[in-house]
Amino acid sequence: MTPTLTPTPVSPSPSTTFADLALVEPIQRALAEKNYTIPSPIQAQSIPYLLQGRDFIGIAQTGTGKTAAFALPILQRLAANPAPATSKRPRALILAPTRELAAQIGQSFATYGRYLKLTHTTVFGGVNIGPQIRTLSRGVDVLIATPGRLMDLENQRHVSLDKVEVFVLDEADRMLDLGFVHEIKRIITKLPPRRQSLLFSATMPPAIQDLASSLVHNPARVEVTPVSTTAERIDQQVCFLNRGDKCRALVHFFKQQPDGLVLVFVRMKHMANKLVEQLARDGVQAEAIHGNKSQAARQRALENFRAGRSRVLVATDIAARGIDVKGITLVVNYDLPEEPESYVHRIGRTARAGLDGKAIAFCDTSERTLLRQIERLIRRPIPVLKDHPFAAAAAQDAAPRVDYGNGIDRVHRPSPNRNGGGFRPSSGGGSRFGGARSGEGQARSGGSRFGGRNRR
Description:
This protein is of the alpha/beta class. It contains 15 helices and 13 strands. A seven-stranded parallel beta sheet has the order 3-4-2-5-6-1-7, with helices on both faces. The protein has a six-stranded parallel beta sheet with strand order 8-13-12-9-11-10, with helices on both faces.
């Protein structure tokens, strides 16, 4: 049964400030120190509902400020009802799909709650579990976790979820797309029935609606920046070329963009490593970030990129929603994504905080169908960049480009589930919670994904 949804409230006035949102003085002080004065639309519309204790559904892309939208009310709620930290029993649980996003959320709680007597910790795979066990045994108020490591800890009885007052499922569509549906459903069964539940997602396909029906009760709903829209400040272009010319074209565009950081997206993990090696031979300092990297290596690459020590970061989609770095002026889709929604999330890494940005998509002859799907989703053609040294005559013979209208006619893969869509059953054997799950945030063979009709 689909949950009853409260209509989206009228957008707040542009003059709305954080001071107007009834946040307590310690939180206001922390915000002021970061020069945060004007809330984003998702923050201004969500925080009043969440301060009332309402269950909530928020539909917003990464980069719209949703972490603060749920972190600030959680901190205020817990601070208003202080309780001694209980061993292994957190009062708030935030579930994130990747290590990078979990770490980012943890940093936000540290920033916003610096003047509150509340504790938090972050747990994810790919690192030693021992320190996480010791921290949980001392007791924390807020736990930020990835699904696999949380279930490992819960199975070993190092954490209990029976005292959780607030539960947040962040990036729900990405969580399910990575195959975590079974873990999420099991985690929900471990939570107390009386709690505040929040679900945030960039998209709202039927699979997410089904999950929401089991999670939230009479929720308020806020939707900002639909996934089919792209930032107005992003200068988007598509570059037709032969696949063998992509690396040289990448070096060419680096030289054309001498300032700012450059984020490059590839489809496969091994391709990320290979591309970094190729760029090094061309004198370009780059690092890779993907699911096969250890957490320490991923964090080091991200910090080097953030600090400008490595101007170029090559990433797979697994890291797309966990990268929140200022100063990215160019995003290159070296490989077009198989899921058109991923294109929007990829290019959303630039043109943040009111700045301009540029996105270039490389498209070889095998990727023209993927390009058409992206254009149907964003409801407009991407301008073709013709004036570059690698323009391939064969690639320009693409099918005529048309006005894609409202996107309703967008092609989709047929659902493998003949019973009407939904989740694909797992085809992989063995335990879902074994040692192989320590590398959190990797797409798993045999994991659950959306059925074709749902995903498209």
